[in-house]
Write a structure and sequence with these properties.
- The complex is a heterodimer of chains A (113) and B (114).
- Chain A is an all-beta fold.
- Chain A is built from no helices and eleven strands.
- In chain B, a hairpin with a 2-residue loop joins strand 5 and strand 6.
- In chain B, strands 2, 4, 5, 6, 9, 10 and 11 form a seven-stranded mixed sheet that branches. In chain B, strands 1-3-8-7 form a four-stranded antiparallel sheet, with no helix packed on it.
- Chain B is 0% helix and 56% strand.
- The interface between A and B is medium-sized, with 23 and 27 residues.
Protein backbone atom coordinates (compact mmCIF):
# COMPACT_ATOMS: atom_id res chain seq x y z
CA UNK A 1 0.00 0.00 0.00
CA UNK A 2 1.06 3.59 -0.49
CA UNK A 3 2.63 5.12 2.53
CA UNK A 4 4.25 8.34 3.66
CA UNK A 5 6.51 8.25 6.70
CA UNK A 6 7.78 11.09 8.80
CA UNK A 7 9.60 10.72 12.07
CA UNK A 8 6.86 10.87 14.67
CA UNK A 9 9.31 11.71 17.43
CA UNK A 10 9.91 15.38 18.12
CA UNK A 11 13.16 16.89 16.90
CA UNK A 12 14.85 19.10 19.48
CA UNK A 13 17.66 21.36 18.35
CA UNK A 14 19.53 24.40 19.59
CA UNK A 15 18.89 27.83 18.13
CA UNK A 16 21.24 28.61 15.26
CA UNK A 17 21.68 24.98 14.21
CA UNK A 18 20.28 23.41 11.04
CA UNK A 19 17.17 21.31 11.45
CA UNK A 20 16.72 18.40 9.04
CA UNK A 21 13.40 16.62 8.71
CA UNK A 22 12.79 13.51 6.64
CA UNK A 23 9.88 12.36 4.52
CA UNK A 24 9.96 8.86 3.05
CA UNK A 25 7.40 7.30 0.78
CA UNK A 26 6.86 3.88 -0.72
CA UNK A 27 5.20 2.30 -3.72
CA UNK A 28 4.73 5.45 -5.70
CA UNK A 29 6.46 7.91 -8.03
CA UNK A 30 4.93 11.32 -7.34
CA UNK A 31 5.26 14.20 -9.74
CA UNK A 32 5.93 16.57 -6.85
CA UNK A 33 6.11 16.82 -3.09
CA UNK A 34 5.00 19.62 -0.80
CA UNK A 35 5.96 20.75 2.70
CA UNK A 36 3.59 22.48 5.12
CA UNK A 37 4.01 24.06 8.52
CA UNK A 38 1.38 23.66 11.21
CA UNK A 39 1.26 25.57 14.48
CA UNK A 40 -0.73 24.20 17.44
CA UNK A 41 -4.46 24.69 16.98
CA UNK A 42 -4.04 26.03 13.45
CA UNK A 43 -4.40 24.77 9.92
CA UNK A 44 -1.31 23.81 7.89
CA UNK A 45 0.35 26.50 5.83
CA UNK A 46 2.08 25.76 2.53
CA UNK A 47 5.84 26.32 2.49
CA UNK A 48 7.50 24.76 -0.54
CA UNK A 49 6.83 22.51 -3.50
CA UNK A 50 9.49 20.50 -5.30
CA UNK A 51 8.92 18.65 -8.57
CA UNK A 52 10.33 15.27 -9.53
CA UNK A 53 12.79 16.83 -11.96
CA UNK A 54 14.15 19.21 -9.31
CA UNK A 55 16.84 18.00 -6.96
CA UNK A 56 16.76 20.97 -4.64
CA UNK A 57 14.63 24.02 -3.90
CA UNK A 58 15.36 26.96 -1.62
CA UNK A 59 13.31 29.71 -0.02
CA UNK A 60 15.08 32.00 2.41
CA UNK A 61 16.34 29.73 5.23
CA UNK A 62 14.45 26.71 3.91
CA UNK A 63 15.85 24.05 1.62
CA UNK A 64 14.12 20.97 0.28
CA UNK A 65 15.70 18.08 -1.56
CA UNK A 66 13.91 15.35 -3.47
CA UNK A 67 15.55 12.03 -4.24
CA UNK A 68 13.18 9.97 -6.38
CA UNK A 69 15.56 7.00 -6.32
CA UNK A 70 15.63 6.84 -2.53
CA UNK A 71 11.96 7.95 -2.43
CA UNK A 72 12.88 10.56 0.11
CA UNK A 73 12.65 14.29 0.69
CA UNK A 74 14.72 16.21 3.20
CA UNK A 75 13.56 19.52 4.62
CA UNK A 76 16.24 21.78 6.10
CA UNK A 77 15.91 24.94 8.15
CA UNK A 78 19.21 26.73 8.49
CA UNK A 79 20.04 29.13 11.35
CA UNK A 80 16.98 27.86 13.16
CA UNK A 81 15.06 30.13 15.51
CA UNK A 82 12.59 29.41 18.32
CA UNK A 83 9.88 30.83 16.03
CA UNK A 84 10.52 27.88 13.70
CA UNK A 85 9.10 25.55 16.35
CA UNK A 86 6.08 23.87 14.79
CA UNK A 87 4.98 20.62 13.18
CA UNK A 88 6.10 20.11 9.60
CA UNK A 89 4.08 17.96 7.22
CA UNK A 90 5.03 16.55 3.86
CA UNK A 91 2.36 15.80 1.28
CA UNK A 92 2.22 13.90 -1.99
CA UNK A 93 -0.25 13.49 -4.82
CA UNK A 94 -0.38 9.73 -4.41
CA UNK A 95 -3.30 9.06 -6.70
CA UNK A 96 -1.79 11.10 -9.53
CA UNK A 97 -5.20 12.60 -10.18
CA UNK A 98 -3.84 16.08 -9.86
CA UNK A 99 -6.24 17.15 -7.18
CA UNK A 100 -5.78 15.23 -3.94
CA UNK A 101 -2.90 15.19 -1.50
CA UNK A 102 -1.98 12.58 1.06
CA UNK A 103 -0.21 13.94 4.12
CA UNK A 104 2.43 12.41 6.30
CA UNK A 105 1.90 12.37 10.05
CA UNK A 106 4.24 15.30 10.57
CA UNK A 107 7.35 15.88 12.66
CA UNK A 108 7.32 18.30 15.55
CA UNK A 109 10.34 20.59 15.67
CA UNK A 110 11.36 22.32 18.89
CA UNK A 111 14.08 24.96 18.66
CA UNK A 112 15.51 25.89 22.03
CA UNK A 113 17.06 29.30 22.69
CA UNK B 1 -4.07 36.13 -0.20
CA UNK B 2 -6.37 33.14 -0.18
CA UNK B 3 -8.64 33.12 2.77
CA UNK B 4 -10.42 30.04 4.03
CA UNK B 5 -12.74 30.55 6.96
CA UNK B 6 -14.56 28.03 9.11
CA UNK B 7 -17.75 28.77 10.96
CA UNK B 8 -16.51 27.92 14.45
CA UNK B 9 -13.15 27.50 16.16
CA UNK B 10 -14.59 25.42 19.00
CA UNK B 11 -17.80 23.43 19.12
CA UNK B 12 -19.30 21.20 21.79
CA UNK B 13 -22.17 18.90 20.86
CA UNK B 14 -23.99 15.98 22.40
CA UNK B 15 -24.13 12.43 21.10
CA UNK B 16 -26.86 12.04 18.51
CA UNK B 17 -27.02 15.71 17.53
CA UNK B 18 -26.80 16.78 13.91
CA UNK B 19 -23.74 18.95 13.41
CA UNK B 20 -22.97 21.35 10.57
CA UNK B 21 -19.45 22.60 9.94
CA UNK B 22 -19.18 25.28 7.30
CA UNK B 23 -16.23 26.41 5.24
CA UNK B 24 -15.97 29.39 2.91
CA UNK B 25 -13.14 30.34 0.57
CA UNK B 26 -12.78 33.63 -1.24
CA UNK B 27 -10.44 32.73 -4.12
CA UNK B 28 -12.80 31.06 -6.56
CA UNK B 29 -11.13 27.67 -6.07
CA UNK B 30 -12.79 24.69 -7.67
CA UNK B 31 -11.53 22.10 -5.20
CA UNK B 32 -12.53 21.95 -1.56
CA UNK B 33 -11.68 19.37 1.08
CA UNK B 34 -12.65 18.28 4.56
CA UNK B 35 -10.08 16.54 6.78
CA UNK B 36 -9.99 15.45 10.34
CA UNK B 37 -6.79 15.45 12.34
CA UNK B 38 -6.14 13.25 15.35
CA UNK B 39 -2.95 12.72 17.36
CA UNK B 40 -0.90 9.90 15.90
CA UNK B 41 -3.15 9.57 12.85
CA UNK B 42 -2.31 12.76 10.99
CA UNK B 43 -4.60 14.40 8.47
CA UNK B 44 -7.22 12.10 6.99
CA UNK B 45 -9.43 13.07 4.09
CA UNK B 46 -13.16 12.77 4.72
CA UNK B 47 -14.64 14.20 1.52
CA UNK B 48 -13.52 16.16 -1.48
CA UNK B 49 -15.48 18.32 -3.92
CA UNK B 50 -14.16 19.41 -7.32
CA UNK B 51 -17.18 21.43 -8.39
CA UNK B 52 -20.57 22.63 -7.24
CA UNK B 53 -22.79 19.70 -6.29
CA UNK B 54 -19.93 17.25 -6.98
CA UNK B 55 -18.31 15.21 -4.25
CA UNK B 56 -16.03 12.25 -3.79
CA UNK B 57 -15.43 10.12 -0.73
CA UNK B 58 -12.07 10.33 0.91
CA UNK B 59 -10.45 7.80 3.19
CA UNK B 60 -12.93 8.00 6.08
CA UNK B 61 -16.39 9.13 4.86
CA UNK B 62 -18.43 6.93 7.21
CA UNK B 63 -20.66 8.96 9.51
CA UNK B 64 -20.26 12.13 7.44
CA UNK B 65 -21.92 13.80 4.49
CA UNK B 66 -21.15 16.99 2.61
CA UNK B 67 -22.92 19.68 0.67
CA UNK B 68 -21.63 22.08 -1.95
CA UNK B 69 -24.42 24.25 -3.30
CA UNK B 70 -22.18 27.23 -4.08
CA UNK B 71 -18.62 27.28 -5.31
CA UNK B 72 -17.27 29.15 -2.31
CA UNK B 73 -18.98 27.10 0.39
CA UNK B 74 -18.44 23.49 1.46
CA UNK B 75 -20.32 22.06 4.40
CA UNK B 76 -19.55 18.96 6.44
CA UNK B 77 -22.49 17.30 8.15
CA UNK B 78 -22.40 14.83 10.99
CA UNK B 79 -25.86 13.26 10.78
CA UNK B 80 -25.74 11.85 14.30
CA UNK B 81 -22.64 12.88 16.20
CA UNK B 82 -20.77 10.24 18.15
CA UNK B 83 -17.95 10.53 20.67
CA UNK B 84 -15.45 9.03 18.21
CA UNK B 85 -16.02 12.05 15.99
CA UNK B 86 -14.38 14.29 18.55
CA UNK B 87 -11.53 15.75 16.55
CA UNK B 88 -10.00 18.76 14.85
CA UNK B 89 -11.73 19.37 11.51
CA UNK B 90 -9.86 21.21 8.81
CA UNK B 91 -11.21 22.59 5.56
CA UNK B 92 -8.98 23.34 2.59
CA UNK B 93 -9.29 24.60 -0.96
CA UNK B 94 -7.15 24.47 -4.08
CA UNK B 95 -7.18 25.59 -7.68
CA UNK B 96 -8.09 22.94 -10.23
CA UNK B 97 -5.61 22.10 -12.94
CA UNK B 98 -2.78 24.04 -11.33
CA UNK B 99 -0.40 21.05 -11.52
CA UNK B 100 0.70 21.78 -8.02
CA UNK B 101 -2.44 21.40 -5.93
CA UNK B 102 -1.23 23.61 -3.13
CA UNK B 103 -3.94 23.51 -0.54
CA UNK B 104 -5.00 26.46 1.56
CA UNK B 105 -6.36 25.57 4.95
CA UNK B 106 -8.80 27.18 7.28
CA UNK B 107 -8.03 27.65 10.99
CA UNK B 108 -9.82 24.45 11.97
CA UNK B 109 -12.80 23.60 14.16
CA UNK B 110 -12.16 21.64 17.32
CA UNK B 111 -15.29 19.57 17.83
CA UNK B 112 -16.02 17.81 21.10
CA UNK B 113 -18.89 15.33 21.23
CA UNK B 114 -20.05 14.52 24.74
Amino acid sequence: SQKIEQNSEALNIQEGKTATLTCNYTNYSPAYLQWYRQDPGRGPVFLLLIRENEKEKRKERLKVTFDTTLKQSLFHITASQPADSATYLCALDLNNAGNMLTFGGGTRLMVKP
Amino acid sequence: DVKVTQSSRYLVKRTGEKVFLECVQDMDHENMFWYRQDPGLGLRLIYFSYDVKMKEKGDIPEGYSVSREKKERFSLILESASTNQTSMYLCASSLAGARSDTQYFGPGTRLTVL
